[in-house]
Structures are given as C-alpha cells and as structure tokens.
C-alpha cells in the first residue's frame, strides 16, 4: 500500500469518527447534563475527548472530482462539516453550535464574533428597505442605537415601546411592514421581565417574527423557544463562556431560518475564531453549576440589600417588590446572577461604596466566575449629564452587581463592610 493510500485511508477513518452522531438525548435529561453532552458527538476525530480545534483558514481537496462532488453536494450528509473556506464554516464552530442549539431546545444555532454581530447580522440578513421593527425601550442600548441610527439610513424604521405595555406593542405593528418584535429578558440594568407568552402570541397572530435577547437568563433559567419565540440571542461572552476571556454571540432557532443566517454570515463576515469556539464549549460545560451558584448568591444579595437602611431600592426579579415578579415566577426556573440597586446617596457616595468593596472588580460585562460591579452613570453613560441620564432612567446612585461564583457569605460580608463605611 502506497503512502498516499495510507493517508487517504486515515483521512476516511478520521472523517467517519468525526461524523458519528450521538443518539438523541433521552427525555428528562437535566440542564447540566445537556451543557456537558448536548449536541456533542460521542466519537470525535483522533478519539479526542474534547472537540479538537481545527485551526485553518482554508480546506483542501484530494483531486478535482472530490471538489466537483463537494460543489454538487454529493458528499454532503446531515451535520457534514466539510467546507472550502474558513469564513463559511469550521468543524470546531459547528460542534459548539450543535451544543448551543441543544441547550435552548432549538433545531440549530449559528455563532458570531460577538453578541452585537449576532443581532446586527440577523437584522441585516432579513430586513429590506421600507421594513419596520418594534423593540422595547429597555433593550440593550447598542441594539437600540444600531436600529435607530444605522438601520434608518437604509430606510428601515424602528418603533420603541415601553417595556410591559403589550397593547402599545401590538398597536405599533404595521401590517405587511413590521418584520420583527425585539425584546430582552431580563433587561439591563433594571432586570425587567418580558411576558414571552404574550409576545409570542402577538407575533404569531400578526405573522411577525419575535426575537428575545436571553443573555441575562441563560438557557438554564429560561428557554424562550419553548414558549413560542422565533429567535433567541445570547451574548456568549457572558454566562455561556463564563470566564471573561472571549467574545462571541449566538442565534438559536428553527433549522431553515438558521441555515439562511449561516449563509449570510459567510457574506457579512462576522465569524467566530475556532480557538474562541473551543474556549466557549469548555465554558458551557460548567454553565449549569455556575448559574446555580450565581442564582443562589444573587438572591441572597438582593434580600440582604433590600433590608439594609443604606439602600433605597433593589431591582431583582426574584423579589416580590419587583414589578415583574409574577411573570418571572411563572416563566423562569431561576432569577439570574445580576442585582441592581440604588444606594442612599449621590454620585460620589455611591462611588465611595464601590471603592470600599474588596471582592468584585470594577468592570463592565457580567456572567463570569469573578464578581463585577459598576456604576452605570460612570461606566456606560459617563459622557451624559445627570439630567440626560435621568431621561434614560439611569440614576447617579444606581449600581449593577454581577455576582460571580465566590462564596455567598464572603460577598455578603463584603457588601456589609462597604455600606458601613458610608
């Protein structure tokens, strides 16, 4: 047997192993089990336990006939990862996409270079001039900025409605023009909870696609697709990754819709690097245990702060005082790892409190193993005056605390000493 024959035989064996599908997960498998095994292939290339990193920008063909067979899709099967160029696909990325789809109970998912690349690519891929979209006013501010500023240049109009006003949301629909209803749940920074069932019903009744940014909830606490939402978006940078060391975004939904988005990604170019995809999959495997700890600690933090005399108000959907508590109890299996609250004092008093904390880092983002804290007036809205911030609902004494996986008692003691210093 020649060296070429040996090489071809080994290649076929590796390809066969890489394409061996797991049997479907039995009904009743828990969320942590899905995080570890969901969407994964039992046998991977080279018998590796972990998904190998396929670090290549281009793919080769053995001969012209193999290229022709590929172009005519004769060699393509279900889940085939064969590609010609890195912008169109990567086996490591596809492995993570299958896992993310399984987590959210979707048929398929598509990964992007960031959460913003995910939402902007979705809108650019589907919308055309003259289209109209609706979004709630507590959506991520960069999503609103893209829609109100960039999409407007292409003749696409955006209507922003107040979070929780579903009559206004339905009234804003323009027949044959409105393509998307977009919301976030929980929202940033007040953790408002959208009634996903009502949004799904409105969308289905008017044949308008519905999109939910579920970054704060994660698939552990909430699964919008199960309720009838069309697309779920995550900034995978946050909880899915869990280690504050990569940027990625994902859209999960019906297979035919995701296929179209994947094709469009090859044109728009917002691809995720295979190294980042590998790190993302590694982070996902501990998602269940991390979120469980963060749910527990955040709830304890919210209860502690609500009872403290130096705190004016706490925003956490697990508290009965939250305006969307009833929806959260009905819709979510956990209330998340972010607590927002208002310190009794002004901008400087609030900054003093933050500076006295010893465990959380002062930083944007959330969802990692380290606790992060920020004063939105100084972190995200520094360039605006107090009056401009108030018009956007951002108070000078507002704090957003994204708890990590540190011990609950240590975090509570740290909060207590910092508040005592005021």
Key features?
single chain; 422 residues; alpha/beta; Aspartate Aminotransferase, domain 2; Aspartate Aminotransferase, domain 1; 3 domains; seven-stranded mixed β-sheet; five-stranded mixed β-sheet; 18 helices; 14% strand; globular
How would you explain this protein's 3D organization?
It is a single chain. The longest helix has 20 residues, at 287-306. The radius of gyration is 23 Å and the shape is globular. It has 3 domains: 3-71, no CATH class; 91-284, 3-Layer(aba) Sandwich (Aspartate Aminotransferase, domain 2), CATH 3.40.640.10; 287-420, Aspartate Aminotransferase, domain 1, CATH 3.90.1150.10. It has helices spanning 3-18, 31-37, 64-71, 91-103, 115-126, 141-153, 166-171, 196-206, 218-221, 224-227, 255-268, 274-284, 287-306, 325-331, 347-356, 376-379, 386-391, 408-420, and strands spanning 108-112, 132-136, 157-161, 178-184, 209-213, 231-235, 249-253, 311-315, 338-343, 361-362, 372-374, 398-402. The strands form 2 sheets. The chain has a 7-stranded mixed β-sheet with strand order 1-7-6-5-4-2-3, with helices on both faces. It contains 18 helices and 12 strands. 42% of the residues lie in helices and 14% in strands.
């Amino acid at each position: 047997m020649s060296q070429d024959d040996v090489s071809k035989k080994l290649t076929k064996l590796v390809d066969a192993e890489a394409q061996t599908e797991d049997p479907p997960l039995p009904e009743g498998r828990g969320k942590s089990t899905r995080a570890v095994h969901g969407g994964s292939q039992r046998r991977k290339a080279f018998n590796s336990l972990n998904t190998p990193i396929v670090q290549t920008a281009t793919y080769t063909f053995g001969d012209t006939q193999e290229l022709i067979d590929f172009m005519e899709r004769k060699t393509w099967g279900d889940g085939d990862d064969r590609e010609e160029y890195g912008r169109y696909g990567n086996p490591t990325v596809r492995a993570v996409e299958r896992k993310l789809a399984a987590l959210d109970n979707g048929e398929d998912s598509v990964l992007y270079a960031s959460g913003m690349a995910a939402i902007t690519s979705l809108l650019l891929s589907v919308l055309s001039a003259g289209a109209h979209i609706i979004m709630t006013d507590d959506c991520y501010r960069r999503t609103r900025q893209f829609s109100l500023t960039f999409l407007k240049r292409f003749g696409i109009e955006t209507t922003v409605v107040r979070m929780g006003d579903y009559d206004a949301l339905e009234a804003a629909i323009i027949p044959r023009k409105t393509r998307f209803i977009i919301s976030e749940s929980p929202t940033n920074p007040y953790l408002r909870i959208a009634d996903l069932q009502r949004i799904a019903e409105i969308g289905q009744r008017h044949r308008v696609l519905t999109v939910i940014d579920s970054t704060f909830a994660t698939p552990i606490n909430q699964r919008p697709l199960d309720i009838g939402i069309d697309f779920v978006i995550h900034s995978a940078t946050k909880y899915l990754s869990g280690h504050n060391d990569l940027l990625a975004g994902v859209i999960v939904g019906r297979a035919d819709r995701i296929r179209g988005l994947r094709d469009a990604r090859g044109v728009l170019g917002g691809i995720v690097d295979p190294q980042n995809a590998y790190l993302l999959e590694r982070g996902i495997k501990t998602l269940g245990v991390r979120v469980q700890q963060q749910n527990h600690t955040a709830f304890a933090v919210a209860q502690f702060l609500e009872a403290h005399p130096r705190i004016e108000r706490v925003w956490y959907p697990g508290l009965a005082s939250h305006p969307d508590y009833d929806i959260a109890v009905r819709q979510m299996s956990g209330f998340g790892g972010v607590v927002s609250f208002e310190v009794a004092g002004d901008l400087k008093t609030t900054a003093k409190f933050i500076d006295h904390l010893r465990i959380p880092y002062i930083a944007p983002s959330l969802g990692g193993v380290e606790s992060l804290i920020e004063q939105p007036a100084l972190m995200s809205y520094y360039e605006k005056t107090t009056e401009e911030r108030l018009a956007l609902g951002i108070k000078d004494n507002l704090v957003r605390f994204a708890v990590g996986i540190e011990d609950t008692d240590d975090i509570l003691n740290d909060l207590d000493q910092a508040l005592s210093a005021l």
